[in-house]
Specification:
By secondary structure, the protein is of the alpha/beta class. It is built from twelve helices and 19 strands.
């Protein structure tokens, strides 16, 4: 019989979103007439922009003719897409990122997980924020970088609490770390790391030879012109940071699948014999061995996001979701609930209400919200111990659903 990877047995009961789906399904079986509104998982709801659809249709036609047929693509992605990304997402913001430092993939979730392939197992002191996007933690558990779980988290990981007092921006670690995961705009809190704080992180990483894994999947939601969209806007970041980006949340690609990872040429890691090795070569080797790239059709669709029409249509999509976030925040404020986020991110992070003088746990509020209003959200404790007493509502929804949800919150939530 094949031996399994025992690290999987350390994982807590279930990945957060399947657990929410399980509880929601049980509720719907018990209440078949309830019209449940899902504001849990951050999955887009609106159709793909027309410019992207047209580009994908044309790409399918390319594949139907000998002269324009494409088989395996270049391992890092098509140059026309990488050039568009480098110019529009980075160089336009003063970040010196070259197209050959960009690796196109099937999504940033996969890349934030797969990056562990090029790092040693059990040799790095790994820091995550708390609350945290669960993928960073669970993939480290699977890789064997942690001990067992207890109520506070997994042994071996360094948790950096991101609390309301600090605007949900984590402080620098008080002990040396080798790898740090940062997510900005943050999933789940919706907070964005300001430029000065990001510069402190880059300085810390340079001083301690640490690697920052910077997840910027939600950067398109930043509205405040003073906030950084990329870690490479900070001087020196090329030496210490890998950045992950996605077309999921801006262009609506959660079902289409396309993302990218930037690995600057200067970035180094250390081998067991003490020599330094560039991470760009390692990631290139990893991707070309284990991955055959995002499809030609998908990459043509992603490139259309940078056309004039594509940009205008994507801006309208983002405006739509952000108007939802504004409605949600206004409703929560009217109900006297404390809420954060939703201003530069599609997530609203609220403090659970008190019941009988005690703050409801995140899962107790999940159940209350579902039973009283038939709305599904995400319990903050699913993102880490510091998320207890908080709850995430996603603004990814139709306007009609959000208006109905706000109406139900006002009329049916018993506070
Ligand atoms: C979420 O709800 O946190 C997101 O859907 C996660 C993801 O993008 O993988």
């Amino acid at each position: 019989m094949a031996r399994i990877n025992d690290n999987f047995l350390k994982l807590k009961a279930g990945y957060l979103f399947p657990e929410i789906a399980r509880r929601t399904a049980a509720f719907m079986t018990a209440h078949p007439d309830a019209a449940v509104i899902r504001m849990g998982i951050g999955d887009v709801t609106e159709p793909l922009p027309a410019a992207i659809r047209q580009a994908m249709h044309a790409a399918v036609d390319d594949l139907g003719r000998h002269e324009t047929f494409h088989g395996y693509g270049p391992e890092r992605g098509y140059p026309w897409l990488r050039e568009a990304i480098a110019a529009n997402d980075f160089q336009s913001r003063g970040c010196a990122i070259e197209p050959d430092e960009i690796f196109i993939s099937d999504g940033s979730k996969c890349d934030t997980a797969n990056i562990l392939d090029i790092l040693a197992v059990g040799q790095n002191r790994i820091a995550v924020t708390d609350p945290v996007y669960p993928v960073y933690v669970d993939t480290n558990v699977m890789a064997g970088n942690t001990g067992a779980a207890d109520d506070g988290g997994y042994a071996g990981l360094i948790y950096l609490p991101a609390t309301a007092d600090s605007g949900f921006v984590p402080d620098l670690p008080s002990q040396p770390v080798d790898v740090i995961y940062l997510c900005s705009p943050n999933n789940p809190t919706g907070a964005v790391i300001p430029r000065t704080a990001l510069a402190r992180w880059v300085d810390y990483a340079r001083e301690h030879d640490a690697l920052i894994l910077y997840d910027a999947a939600y950067e398109a939601y930043i509205r405040d012109a003073n906030l950084p969209h990329s870690i490479y806007e900070v001087e020196g970041a090329r030496e210490v940071a890998i950045e992950f980006r996605s077309f999921s949340k801006n262009a609506g690609f959660t079902g289409v699948r396309c993302g990218l990872t930037v690995v600057p040429r200067e970035l180094k890691g250390r081998a067991a014999d003490g020599t330094t090795v560039d991470l760009h070569s390692l990631w290139n080797r990893r991707q070309s061995t284990k991955f055959n790239g995002a499809s030609y059709v998908v990459q043509r669709g992603a490139a259309a996001a940078y056309s004039d029409e594509g940009r205008t249509q994507i801006r309208a999509l983002i405006d739509h979701y952000m108007a939802n976030a504004t409605l949600i925040r206004a409703t929560l404020a009217d109900l006297g609930l404390t809420a954060y986020g939703g201003e530069n991110a599609p997530y609203v992070w609220l403090q659970t209400p008190n019941a009988g003088g005690t703050r409801l746990t995140s899962w107790a509020f999940f159940d209350k919200l579902l039973s009283e209003t038939h709305i599904v959200g995400t319990p903050g404790s699913g993102f880490g111990a510091a998320g207890e007493g908080y709850f995430r509502l996603s603004a990814f929804n139709s306007r009609d659903n959000v208006e109905q949800a706000c109406d139900r919150l006002r009329k049916r939530l018993k506070l």
